[in-house]
Design brief:
The chain is of the alpha/beta class. The protein contains 40 helices and 57 strands. The strands form 18 sheets. It has an eight-stranded parallel beta barrel, surrounded by four helices. Strands 25-31-32-33-39-35-36 form a seven-stranded mixed beta sheet, with helices on one face. Strands 2, 3, 5, 6, 8 and 9 form a six-stranded mixed beta sheet that branches. Helix 16 packs parallel to helix 17. It is globular, with a radius of gyration of 43 Å.
C-alpha cells in the first residue's frame, strides 16, 4: 500500500489556471485545498468531480467541498477542504468566488497494480514491460510457448498491439472490426474468443505474476471496415465535411497522374515509372503545374461567379432596392459557399449596395457602378487565386518530399517503380467505386449517396498543434498535402458529443469496455491526435469497468506543458519515453536522471507538505515497436549496456520483443507476417523458431529485470548518474533507509567496436562505501556459429552474438576488474578504487555497496534516536547500547526545563545580540552569515533548501566539508550553562554519530536532527503561552514566536533594577563579579538595528508592542517587570524614549508615558487580578526631577502614586531642558529642540506640547542633511495636540475614573497650582472636556461653512480626522495620516460611528498598502513613498531619509486601522461587519505570507510604497508583530 497518512496541500490563488500543471498523487493520500493570500477572507467554494464516498464517478458531476477550520475563526491560515484519495484516475477541481469561476486544474491519482494469486502490489517503478506484435504470436494455442520467453526474461508486463481483426493492409493498427478477435488466432478446430484471451491473461497474472495491457485505437478504423460502409457518417466524407472537396479533387487528379506514370504515358515528358534522380523530381513538379493544376482549377472552389454577381447587383440597383448597411466598417469580402461548389461563393449584397452608390438613377450611372463592383469582385477573386497558388505550392513541395523519402532516401523504404500498388503518393481519400475519368468522378462529388463514401484517411502532420483536429473546417492540411498519410485507415469523426455521431460513440465505448474487462491497462495509440473529449469519455468508461486501469501513451507534442494537458485530462499513468532518442551515452544518462528518483542524500520531507508540480511518470523504453532498430543505428554491442542504463532508471521500464534476441532490423507493424520464437531451454543458437538463455542478451535481461524490480520494491528511490567518460555511464540507485546502494557501470557501444576505435585506458572509478558483491558482470561477445540469415517463418536475431554473464560473485572473482583498493577519504569514509581491465564496449558490471560497518552502525543508531520525532526513521534503525547517558532521555524531557527566555537563546538572537555576549552568527563562506545564531537561523535556510533538495547550496557544501557548523550549534549552547547547556549536550551527543557517517549524508541527517529538535522547541514555547496561542491558528502561533524572538536577557541587563521588595523577580550569578544580579526579560524594538546595547529598549516601542507580544501571549510576570522597570525611571512626569538602562535615558518624547499608562490599563484588564500591579513597589531612580540616579530600594512608591504623578505633572504643565543638551547628546538637533514643553489645555482637556524644532511623537525623523538644508529641522514635529495622544489620554482618564469609583485607585482627580491657589480638576471633569471638544475640533466637516473650522482655506480632504490640533504650522493639522485610528481603538467613545466610518473609508482608499499604512496622504505635495536613509542630495523633502514618515508604509498603524474598522463595523450592522472581516482576513493573509517567507520569521518595520521591500527597515519589528496579533485577538 502507499505510505500511510501522507498529506499534500494545494494553495488556491485567484485566477490561477493550472490546466497545464501536472499534480500526481497516490491512493491513500489526503489532498487539502487551502486559500492562498489572494483568496483569504473571501467566500470561496471548491468544486470537484472526484466522487463522494460510495458514489460513482461522473466526469461532468461536480460537488462542493466543505471547509474545515480546526482553530476557529480568527483567520484563514488553517482553513482547508480535503479529498481522501482512494480511486485512481484524472479529476478536475475548480473554485469560485462570488459565484464566478476563479481558477482550477486537475489532479491525477495513480492506479495500484496487483499481481499473483495473492494480489501483491506491483509498484509503478517496478514495471518491466515488453511489447509484442499480436499478429506474430500465431495461433492462440501456441501463445503460451511464445509468451513464456517474456516470463523467462523477467518481464512483469506484456503490451500487446491490438488483438482485433485487421484491415486489408495487415497493419497492427488498422482494425477492420474493433469488437471481433483477429480470426488468425483461431485454428481450424477451435475459434479464439475474448474469454479465451481473458483466461490466459488471468493465468499470467496469477501464475506468472505478469500483467497484460493492449492498445486502444480511437482515431481511425481500417478503410475496409464493414461497419463504416454502413455508417459513413462516422468518417470525414464529402457530405459532412464539404470543405474537403477541393482536396479530394486534387487527390483524384494525383491518382490519375500516378496511374499514367505507371503505364509509362509520361516518358515523353521525361518521367518514367522508375523515379531515380532530381531530374525526375523536376519533371513531376513541371507536370503538376502545367497539366494538373490548370485542369482542376482548384481556385474556383473559393471564388465568386463574376457575371452572376454583377447581374444580381444590377437587378437590385435598378429595382432601387438600396438598403444602407448599418456598419460602416464592413468591407466587401467573399463569403465561402458551405457546399464548396465551383464559383459558388457569394458576397453580401447589402454591403455592396452601401459601398457602390450610383450618383444618379440613369442607366449610365448604374452601368458605371456595376463596373466598379465587377472590378472589386475580380480583385477579390484574384486574391483567392493567389491564396490557392500558395496552397498548391505547398502541396507540390510536400508531395516531392514524400517521393524522395519513399523512393530515393537511403533510410526510406525504397519502393521502386510507380505502380498501382505503390502509387506516386498515398491516396488521401477512399474511393470505393469503379474508376472513371476525372471529369466523371467530379460529378459523383455532388451526389450525396456517393459522396458520403469518399472518406478522408488518417495520418499525422509534422509540427502541427496536437490540440487541433486537422480534418475539421479551417484546416487546409489535406489540400496542402501536409498529411503523412496512412492509406489503410479512415479518420473517425466524433463531433463534440455522443449525439453528434451516436453509432460511433456507442461502438467505441463497447470496444473500450471489452478491452478494460480483459486487460489490466491500455496504451492510447496515436494519443496526441486523438480528440481529448473522446479519449476522456472512453477512459471514464474503461475505469468504470476496471478502476485501477494502467494507462500509457506516447506523445509527440514537443512541449511538456501540452503533454501535461493530455496527462491531466486523460489521467495517463506513464508517458512512454525512449532511450533511442539519445544521441550519445551522456544524453542517455541524463534521461535516467530526468525521469525519476531524487538526488542521493536528499532531505526527509514532512508528511504534510505543499503539492508540487510534477513531471509525468515515465515508462522508459530502450526502443519502442514503431521505431527503427538500434542495431542499425548503433551496434550489436550496445544492446546490453543501453538496456542496463534504462533498467537502472527509477521509473517503469520496457523494451520491444526482438531487441533481446538482437533482431537486426525493425519488426514492421505493417509487413511482418512471421511468428516469434518459442521458449526451449534445450535449443541451440541456430535452432529455428526457438530461444533460451543462450540467445542474444536474454540472460542479461533476466538479471536486469530482476534487479529493476528489486530496486523499485525495496525503496531505492535516490539516483545519481556519473558520466565516467564519453562511453561509460555509472548509475547509482540508493536506498535512503538502509543506505545500501547499487552501482551499475555500463560501457556503451554507440559506434561499432569493430570499425571504430575505443580507448584501451578505462578511467579508475571511486565507489564510496564497502562493495558487498558484484551483482552481475556481463559482456557482449561474438561466438562461432553460422552467420545471420533471415528465417522465412520465424523472427530471428543475430546468432553469433551472446552475453557472457556471471552473477553474485566477489570482487576478486571478477574478470572485468583488474584490482580493487581501499582508500580512506575521511575519518569514517572508505572509498573503493576500482581498476578495470576488461570493461570492453558492450559490457556492464553492477556492484552492491553498503556503508562502511562503523558508519552503518552510526546511521542505525542515529535513526533509532530520531524515531522520537518521526516513525519514518524506524526502518534501518539499530538499538543503541553504548550511547551517552543524556541520549537515554527523550529530547522533549530535556527541553522541558527551558523557559521562554531560554528559548530566545536557543532559537533566535541576531548577530548584534550575540556580539554583545562575545559571539556572533555563523557565517557560511561564499554565501552569507545566518540571520540568527539560534536554530531559527539554520531552519530558515533549510526551509528553502529542503523542498527543492538543493544539495548544491553552499550551506550543504559547508556541512559536507567539515564539522564547523555542527560544532557551532552545540558548543554555543553548552557555553551558556543551565537548561540551554543541556540542550547543547544532547545535540553534541547526537552529533557524535552524525560525524561518523559519510559526508554526503550529513546534510540530510543534520536537517533531521534539527527539525526534530526545532519542532519540539516550538511546541514547548506555545505550551508556555496563553490559551489564545495554544488554541490558535498556525498564523497566531507563528506570530506569537515574535514574543520569544524579541524578549530576551542579554549578558548585560537592559532594564534598571526593580525594588528588592518586589516578589518573583528573576536573579542570576554574575560571571565576572560572582554576585547575584537581576535578570529581567527586556523587549527589543526591532531586529537587527534595535536589539542590543542602549539602542535595545525604547519606551514608546516597548509599550506599543507589550500588549500584543506579552499580555496576549500570557507572559504576565515579565510584562509586570517591564512596566515597573520603566516606572522607576519616571522624571518630569514622562517615561523615557530611549531607556539607556535609566541612567542614560532621554525624556524627549510626549507619547511614551501615555502608551505606558495604556499598557497598565491593558494589564489590569487582561491579567487575572491584574489591578494588584497598582500596589506593586516602584523604586524611584529619580525621586525628584533634578535628583541624581538612586539605587533600587532607596525610595519605593506604589505604582498608583507614580501614575498619579504623571497625570498631575501634565495638568500642571511640564517645562524643562534636556540634560547634557548639545551635539554630544544629539548631533542633529538645534538648540531650541532640547527644550521640552508639555501641558493640558484647560478648556478642551487636550494634552499638547512640543515646538517646531523637536518631534515628541512616533513620527520622529530629524533632518540630517546640510546639503538639502534640512539639518536640525524635524520632518514631522506634530506639535500642538497630536490625535493619538489625545485618544490615549482620554482612555487613561476614563479608566482611572472607573477605578476611583471602584475605590481601586485612591485619587478622584489632579490638584494644580494656578495663580497661587490650589485647584482640583476631577477625572470626571477632564473626561467630559475631551468628550465634548474632540469631534468638534478634530473632525473636518463635510460642511464648508462649519463654524468650528479655524482654517477652512487649508482643508483639502473632508470627512477625515485631523492629525493634530493647534500645530505651529496649521496646515500640518489637516494632513491625512493614519494616527487617528489609534485614538479610535483606545477611545472609541469620542467618535460618532458614521463619521468614524467615513474617515476609515477614506483612509482605506488613500493610505492602505499591502502590508502597512502610508504615513501620509499620497495627494499631499510632500508625499514620497520610498525611504532611502543613505541618499544625500539637494532635495529637501527626501535627503538623508527626511521622508521617513512622509509616505513609506509602516506596519504598526495597520493594526489599529483594522481594529478600528472591526469595532465600528459592528456598530454599523452585520452586513458591514461581514465585509470588514473579509477585508481583514485578506489583508492579514499578506502578513502571513511575508512571515512564512521571511528568513527572520518576522514582520518588517516598514515597506516602501505599495509594499516594496525597503532595505533600511528593520527586518523584524516588535510592534509590527504585536499589532497583527492584537487584530487576530480582536477577531
Amino acid at each position: 500500500m502507499p505510505p500511510s497518512n501522507q498529506t499534500r496541500v494545494l494553495l488556491l490563488n485567484a485566477m490561477e489556471k493550472r490546466e497545464k500543471t501536472l499534480f500526481r498523487l497516490e491512493q491513500g493520500f489526503e489532498l487539502q485545498f487551502r486559500l492562498g493570500p489572494t483568496l483569504q477572507g473571501k467566500h470561496v467554494t471548491v468544486y470537484t468531480n472526484y466522487p463522494a464516498s460510495g458514489e460513482l464517478f461522473y466526469r461532468r458531476k461536480f460537488r462542493a467541498l466543505s471547509w474545515h477550520n480546526p482553530t476557529g475563526r480568527e483567520d484563514d491560515s488553517d482553513k482547508y477542504c480535503k479529498l481522501d484519495l482512494q480511486i485512481s484516475g484524472s479529476y478536475q477541481y475548480y473554485f469560485s468566488h462570488e459565484n464566478e469561476k476563479s481558477g482550477g486544474g486537475y489532479i491525477v491519482v495513480d492506479p495500484i497494480l496487483r499481481v499473483g494469486a495473492d494480489n501483491q502490489v506491483l509498484h509503478l517503478d517496478c514495471v518491466t514491460l515488453q511489447t509484442f506484435l499480436a499478429k506474430c504470436l500465431g495461433p492462440f494455442e501456441e501463445w503460451e510457448d511464445r509468451l513464456k520467453v517474456a516470463k523467462e526474461s523477467g518481464y512483469n508486463m506484456i503490451h500487446f498491439t491490438p488483438l482485433q481483426k485487421l484491415g486489408l493492409s495487415r497493419s497492427c493498427y488498422s482494425l477492420a472490426d474493433q469488437l471481433e478477435v483477429n480470426p488468425d488466432f483461431s485454428s481450424p478446430n477451435k475459434k479464439c474468443t475474448w474469454s479465451n484471451i481473458g483466461n490466459l491473461v488471468e493465468k499470467m497474472k496469477n501464475e506468472w505474476n505478469m500483467l497484460c495491457i493492449t492498445d486502444v485505437v480511437y482515431n481511425h478504423t481500417a478503410a475496409n471496415s464493414e461497419w463504416i460502409r454502413v455508417h459513413p457518417e462516422c468518417g470525414y466524407n464529402l457530405v459532412n465535411s464539404p470543405h474537403l472537396k477541393p482536396a479530394w479533387i486534387l487527390d483524384r487528379a494525383l491518382w490519375h497522374l500516378s496511374c499514367s506514370v505507371a503505364e509509362g504515358k509520361y516518358r515523353d515528358k521525361g518521367l518514367p515509372p522508375s523515379i531515380e534522380n532530381d531530374h525526375h523530381l523536376n519533371c513531376i513538379r513541371k507536370i503538376i503545374w502545367e497539366d494538373i493544376y490548370p485542369k482542376i482549377k482548384l481556385w474556383e472552389f473559393f471564388q465568386v461567379d463574376v457575371n452572376k454577381a454583377v447581374q444580381q447587383f444590377k437587378t437590385l440597383l435598378t429595382q432601387g432596392n438600396r438598403k444602407t448597411k448599418s456598419d460602416p466598417n464592413q468591407h466587401l469580402q467573399i463569403i465561402q459557399d458551405p457546399e464548396y461548389k465551383r464559383l459558388g461563393c457569394t458576397v453580401d449584397m447589402n454591403v455592396a449596395l452601401a459601398t457602390f452608390i450610383p450618383h444618379s438613377n440613369g442607366p449610365a450611372a448604374i452601368e458605371e457602378c456595376c463596373n466598379w463592383f465587377q472590378k472589386k469582385i475580380e480583385e477579390l477573386n484574384a486574391e483567392q487565386f493567389q491564396q490557392t497558388a500558395y496552397h498548391q505550392e505547398q502541396a507540390v513541395t510536400c508531395l516531392l518530399e514524400t517521393v524522395v523519402y519513399e523512393r530515393l532516401a537511403d533510410h526510406g523504404p525504397k519502393q521502386g517503380s510507380v505502380s498501382r500498388k505503390y502509387p506516386l503518393v498515398t491516396r488521401y481519400f477512399t474511393y470505393p467505386f469503379k474508376e472513371m475519368t476525372l471529369e466523371e468522378e467530379e460529378l459523383l462529388m455532388h451526389q450525396p449517396d456517393k459522396a458520403c463514401h469518399f472518406l478522408a484517411h488518417n495520418g499525422w502532420v509534422m509540427g502541427d498543434d496536437p490540440l487541433r483536429n486537422f480534418a475539421e473546417p479551417g484546416s487546409n492540411v489535406y489540400l496542402r498535402r501536409e498529411l503523412i498519410c496512412w492509406g489503410d485507415s479512415a479518420k473517425l469523426r466524433y463531433g463534440n458529443k455522443p449525439e453528434d455521431c451516436p453509432y460511433l460513440w456507442a461502438h467505441m465505448k463497447k470496444y473500450t469496455e471489452i478491452t478494460a474487462k480483459y486487460f489490466h491497462g491500455v496504451r492510447l495509440d496515436n494519443c496526441h491526435s486523438t480528440p481529448l473529449h473522446v479519449a476522456e469519455e472512453m477512459l471514464a468508461a474503461a475505469r468504470s469497468v476496471r478502476p485501477n486501469l494502467y494507462v500509457i501513451a506516447e506523445l509527440f507534442t514537443g512541449s511538456e506543458h501540452i503533454d501535461n494537458v493530455f496527462v491531466n485530462r486523460l489521467g495517463i499513468t506513464s508517458l512512454i519515453r525512449e532511450a533511442m532518442s539519445a544521441y550519445n551515452s551522456h544524453e542517455e544518462g541524463r534521461l535516467v536522471y530526468r525521469f525519476g528518483g531524487e538526488p542521493v542524500g536528499s532531505f526527509v520531507q514532512p508528511r504534510l507538505r505543499p503539492l508540487m508540480p510534477a513531471i509525468a511518470h515515465a515508462l522508459f523504453m530502450d526502443v519502442t515497436h514503431d521505431n527503427e532498430c538500434p542495431i542499425q543505428h548503433r551496434s550489436e554491442y550496445d544492446a546490453l549496456p543501453s538496456s542496463m542504463i534504462v533498467s537502472m532508471a527509477c521509473c517503469a521500464t520496457g523494451s520491444t520483443k526482438g531487441y533481446d534476441e538482437l533482431v537486426p532490423h525493425q519488426i514492421s507493424v505493417v509487413s511482418e507476417e512471421r511468428f516469434y520464437a518459442k521458449w526451449n531451454p534445450a535449443a541451440t543458437p541456430s535452432t529455428p523458431g526457438e530461444v533460451n538463455f543462450q540467445t542474444g542478451i536474454i540472460a542479461g535481461r533476466l538479471a536486469m529485470n530482476r534487479l529493476h524490480q528489486e530496486l523499485g520494491a525495496k525503496g531505492f528511490i535516490q539516483v545519481f548518474v556519473d558520466q565516467v567518460d564519453e562511453d561509460i555511464v555509472a548509475v547509482t540507485r540508493h536506498c535512503p533507509n538502509t543506505h545500501q546502494s547499487v552501482v551499475a557501470v555500463s560501457r556503451t557501444a554507440f559506434r561499432d567496436p569493430k570499425t571504430s576505435s575505443y580507448s584501451k585506458e578505462v578511467p579508475q572509478m571511486c565507489i564510496p562505501g564497502k562493495i558487498e558483491e558484484v551483482v552481475l558482470e556481463a559482456r557482449t561477445i561474438e561466438r562461432n556459429v553460422s552467420p545471420y540469415k533471415k528465417d522465412e517463418h520465424f523472427i530471428n536475431g543475430l546468432p553469433n552474438y551472446t552475453v557472457e554473464i556471471r552473477e553474485h560473485i566477489q570482487i576478486r572473482e571478477s574478470k572485468i576488474i583488474k584490482q580493487a583498493g581501499t582508500a580512506i577519504k575521511g575519518p569514517n569514509e572508505f572509498v573503493q578504487e576500482i581498476e578495470f581491465e576488461n570493461l570492453t564496449p558492450g559490457s556492464v558490471i553492477i556492484f552492491r555497496v553498503s556503508l562502511d560497518p562503523k558508519a552503518q552502525e552510526a546511521v542505525g543508531v542515529l535513526r533509532n534516536h530520531l524515531i522520537q520525532f518521526s516513525p519514518h526513521f524506524k526502518s534501518g534503525s539499530l538499538p543503541d547500547d553504548r550511547s551517552a547517558p543524556i541520549l537515554k532521555n527523550l529530547f522533549s524531557s530535556i527541553a522541558s526545563k527551558l523557559t521562554l527566555a531560554d528559548l530566545n537563546q536557543v532559537l533566535y538572537r541576531c548577530d548584534a545580540e550575540e556580539q554583545e555576549d562575545g559571539g556572533g552568527c555563523y557565517n557560511i563562506p561564499n554565501w552569507s552569515p545566518l540571520k540568527y545564531a539560534g536554530l531559527q537561523g539554520l531552519m530558515s535556510v533549510m526551509a528553502d533548501i529542503r523542498p527543492k533538495n538543493d544539495l548544491g547550496h553552499p550551506f550543504c557544501g559547508n556541512l559536507r566539508s567539515g564539522d564547523w557548523m555542527i560544532d557551532y550549534v552545540s558548543d554555543r549552547l553548552i557555553s551558556r550553562a543551565g537548561a540551554c547547556a543541556e540542550v547543547g549536550k544532547w545535540l553534541k551527543a547526537m552529533f557524535i554519530y552524525l560525524k561518523q557517517i559519510p559526508r554526503y549524508l550529513i546534510p540530510c541527517y543534520f536537517d533531521a536532527i534539527l527539525v526534530g529538535a526545532y519542532t519540539t522547541l516550538l511546541d514547548l514555547a506555545w505550551s508556555q503561552m496563553s490559551s489564545f496561542v495554544q488554541n490558535g491558528s498556525t498564523f497566531v502561533k507563528h506570530l506569537s514566536l515574535g514574543s520569544v524572538q524579541m524578549c530576551g536577557i542579554g549578558k548585560y541587563p537592559s532594564l534598571p533594577n526593580l525594588s528588592p521588595a518586589l516578589h518573583d523577580v528573576p536573579y542570576r550569578m554574575n560571571e565576572i563579579t560572582k554576585e547575584k544580579e537581576q535578570c529581567c526579560v527586556s523587549l527589543a524594538a526591532g531586529l537587527p538595528h534595535f536589539s542590543s546595547g542602549i539602542f535595545r529598549c525604547w519606551g514608546r516601542d516597548t509599550f506599543i508592542a507589550l500588549r500584543g507580544l506579552m499580555l496576549i501571549t500570557g507572559r504576565y510576570l515579565e510584562a509586570r517587570n517591564i512596566i515597573l522597570a520603566f516606572a522607576s525611571t519616571m522624571r518630569h512626569g514622562l517615561i523615557p524614549n530611549l531607556l539607556g538602562q535609566g541612567t542614560h535615558a532621554r525624556f524627549n518624547c510626549r507619547d511614551a508615558v501615555w502608551w505606558w499608562l495604556q499598557c497598565i490599563q491593558d494589564y489590569c484588564k487582561i491579567v487575572p487580578n491584574g489591578t494588584d500591579i497598582l500596589k506593586c513597589p516602584v523604586s524611584r531612580m529619580y525621586p525628584t526631577d533634578d535628583s541624581p540616579a538612586q539605587p533600587a530600594g532607596a525610595l519605593d512608591q506604589p505604582l498608583y502614586e507614580v501614575i498619579q504623578e504623571a497625570m498631575q505633572q501634565h495638568m500642571q504643565g511640564i517645562e524643562f531642558r534636556e540634560r547634557n543638551a548639545g551635539p554630544q547628546l544629539d548631533r542633529n538637533m538645534r538648540d531650541e529642540g532640547f527644550n521640552v514643553t508639555v501641558g493640558v489645555d484647560h478648556e478642551t482637556g487636550f494634552v499638547f506640547g512640543g515646538n517646531r524644532f523637536n518631534c515628541g511623537t512616533w513620527m520622529d525623523k530629524m533632518g540630517e542633511s546640510d546639503r538639502a538644508r534640512n539639518k536640525g529641522i524635524p520632518a514631522t514635529p506634530r506639535d500642538g495636540s497630536a490625535v493619538e495622544i489625545v485618544g490615549l489620554c482620554k482612555s487613561t482618564i476614563r479608566w482611572l475614573l472607573e477605578l476611583s469609583k471602584k475605590k481601586v485607585f485612591p485619587y478622584q482627580g489632579v490638584n494644580i497650582k494656578r495663580h497661587g491657589k490650589i485647584e482640583t480638576i476631577t477625572y470626571d471633569e477632564w473626561n467630559r472636556k475631551i468628550q465634548g471638544h474632540f469631534e468638534k475640533l478634530f473632525f473636518v466637516s463635510e460642511n464648508p461653512a462649519d463654524p468650528n473650522e479655524k482654517h477652512p482655506n487649508l482643508v483639502h480632504k473632508r470627512g477625515i480626522y485631523k492629525d493634530s490640533y493647534g500645530a505651529s504650522s496649521p496646515w500640518c493639522d489637516y494632513q491625512l495620516r493614519p494616527n487617528f485610528t489609534i485614538a479610535m481603538v483606545v477611545a472609541p467613545e469620542i467618535f460618532s460611528p458614521e463619521k468614524a466610518w467615513k474617515a476609515l473609508e477614506i483612509a482605506e482608499e488613500k493610505l492602505l498598502g499591502p502590508l502597512g499604512m502610508k504615513t501620509l496622504d499620497p495627494d499631499d505635495m510632500v508625499y514620497c513613498g520610498v525611504y532611502d536613509n543613505a541618499l544625500d542630495s539637494d532635495h529637501y523633502n527626501v535627503a538623508k531619509g527626511f521622508n521617513y514618515h512622509q509616505g513609506p508604509e509602516w506596519l504598526w498603524p495597520i493594526g489599529y486601522f483594522l481594529r478600528a474598522k472591526l469595532y465600528f463595523s459592528r456598530l454599523i450592522g452585520p452586513e458591514m461587519y461581514a465585509k470588514t472581516v473579509v477585508l481583514i482576513k485578506n489583508v492579514l493573509s499578506r502578513h502571513y505570507v511575508h512571515l512564512e517567507r521571511s528568513s527572520w520569521k518576522g514582520l518588517p518595520e516598514l515597506t516602501n510604497e505599495n509594499g516594496q521591500y525597503c532595505p533600511f527597515s528593520c527586518e523584524s519589528q516588535a510592534w509590527s508583530i504585536a499589532v497583527i496579533l492584537e487584530v487576530l485577538y480582536d477577531l
